[in-house]
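Continuing the series of single-chain predictions for the mutant panel. This is the parent chain; the variants come on the following pages.
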Amino acid sequence: MDRLDFLKRQSELFFGLSEQQLKVIADESREIKVEKEEVILHENEVSDDIFIIVQGEAAIIKSDPTTGLSHQIGTLYPGDIIGEISLIDDAPRSASVRITKPSTLIMLSIKKLRAHAKEEYSFSKTLSDRNKNDNGELPTYAVMVHNVAKQLSKRLRMTNETVVEALRNELMQVKAREAMGRFIITIVVILSLYVIVLNAIETYRPTITSTAFISIPLLILFAIPSFIAMKLSGYPMELYGFTIKGWRWSVIESLAYTFIMLGIVVLYKLVLLHYNSRFSGRHLFDFTLNLGPGRDKPISFLYGTLIICLYLLFVPMQELLARGALQSSFQVLLIGRYKTLWAILLSNLLFSVLHTHVSFGFGLIVYIPGLFWGWLYARQKTLIGPTISHLIVGAWAVFIVGLI
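Parent structure:
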């Protein structure tokens, strides 16, 4: 490799140097080969060398004195300079540099550069024409220090802008999480009141044969303030799944996975027929719209129509609350790698609580399909697919297979 030609292209550190000065630097430098994972600079150690990456790659590593953990804060590529700040001060290195790919480096000695500078001019004078050498050139070391100072000034300006932008973004995120926290509290209060009121009404319902006539209108009633809270949250309604973007693929994908869920429901009914005495003597497919006691009793056309209409309203309201309101909110509020998973688990837990008025066991059963619909919603970002799947699976499990 022609080191002189390579140094000519390093405009940041060697800008303003003559070819003769660059030739002196090229002669005093040396080329080294460094293997992967080798550390060429150690944090808090004093080093006398500057490195220029010709080929390869390196990572800047900073340790946390509190935890003792190390973090990669940057990556260096061919042409980047390592350790140039030591031209200005003799302080210990502020970070470590580890080679991440087999690399070729040019190494310069700061001591040699300073020794060479003494031969060019006196450091007691300022940079002026009197300080130029016989060829009318400013000393090599002074030019390099001047170039490093310019680069540091540029980095400082960029850092200030970056810090201000980061603080602005952090403030926006804090405000957003605060607003979302208030929204989640509102939704949780609404759902808690729903469960309390439902249980209180069911205690005094001696003439009502089905909980559906209580729970479904009540859920719809409580869904209204939840929807209003979404509108007032300051977030776009798309965040809560109110979008038709990609609806065709959402429907196709949901239907494909829904057929699998239908098979799982049938298998579960087979298990209940063999091991649960409450299902003894019942058929695998137990079609009925009678949700009250005595599933084998005939029902009127009006009753069946009313049950279907209530069900068609009930499921979208559930999806609005469980996926649209809760899961979306948790995904915004939570942070970390597994925030989507936690959002699905937490929202689905509350979703299952809404079904405990039927029975404790039924509340546990609906947790599994709820995880499935939460996963669908996280993938599709729309309520369309999960709602259609919920309608089909719920109708299949309750009205056709007869799990209640």
